[in-house]
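Hi F.,

I've been meaning to write this up properly since the lab meeting, where we talked about keeping a consistent format for the predictions we share between groups. The idea is simple: the sequence comes first, exactly as it goes in, then the structure tokens exactly as they come out, then a line or two of notes. No screenshots and no reformatting. I'm using this chain as the first example so we have something concrete to point to.
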Amino acid sequence: MRRRMREGQLGSAPAIVALAVIWTVFGIMDPDFLSPRNLSNLGIDIVGAGLVAVGVVFVLLLAEIDLSVASVGALSAALFAALNVRHGVPEAAAVLLALAVGAAVGAVHGFFVARVGVPSFVVTLAGLLGWNGLTLYIFAGQGTILLDENGPVVRLTHSYFHDVAVAYALAALGTLAYFLLSYRTARRRRAAGALPVRGLPEIVLRTLGLAAVSFTAGWTLNQFLGLPLALLIFLVFLVCLDVLLRRTPYGRRIVALGGNIEPARRAGIAVTSVRVSVFMISSTMAAIGGLFLASRVSSASATAGSGNLLIEAIAAAVIGGTSLFGGRGRTWSALLGILVIQSVASGMALLGIPGAVQFMIIGVVLLGAVVIDTLARRTQQAHGWA
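Output, unedited:
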């Protein structure tokens, strides 16, 4: 760990430290912050923006940016609400159509960025304006469309697994899977030779740390209503996309493109296809996140795309440890980053601090994350890692 720190390979360590400090400070100032009820609500509040932030991580890995994610999320929720509530389309079909539109939006963005060569900042800024306008057109003067409170979409963020065994089983399964994957990776790296390998004591220590966090979280959630369904779905997305990113050839191509595009092109990677697909992932995750945000408030709003979602999603990815310079980051960065942001929001709400102060704090945290990322990159360059 000391070696990695000296070489600038900080990863998510700053976000973990920031989260520990935030929870300690707010826990001392208001004991209700660490109550099972508040932490359970926090676990649901992070899902919508967190899913959007996961898609942003993929784009940042290419050293690109997607400014349209909030508008795409609002458009997805608007399409779903209009199809289901106004036109009577079954919820399953409406959800699939909304997600398909999200993927199509990403394909359009990717086409202009990867094939035409327009900077992603300009393309997605145009998308932010254009898709927000389309959302307003869909609402046709009606500011809000109420969703069926008994429908599957609304129940996504209002359902819990009341059986205490579910949370503990998930904690045990996650811990066991981490140990087996870490042990398997260490064996393969040792067999390959000339690669740094984690020893068994380090793997066991990391596994015990994960078990402590997982079972403590499970116990806390069980003290309220149990494991939230929305949080479980979020974790499943994180795990699946982490496997896609770190353990498949496709994921390695994304990281390679973010590190340096020209060597990746000469190595035979289909640069255009990969870049288009990454923007499709970003927009699809934004569409999914938009549906979860609509589920949380049981409605779709015409102004959903003009709120804080864009800032929160990008800030979460960066604060969680994803580099703005590309080639460095994980899907778990989105979880850590959105936890930091929502923890600040939750603590300030409990203390009655004005929302304007929240923007100041998040701004300072975001700037600090970018400064750390920049300094870490310089250190990596000095050690030949970047």
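Notes:
The chain is about 75% helix and 5% strand.
The radius of gyration is 21 Å.

If this format works for you, I'll send the rest the same way.

G.
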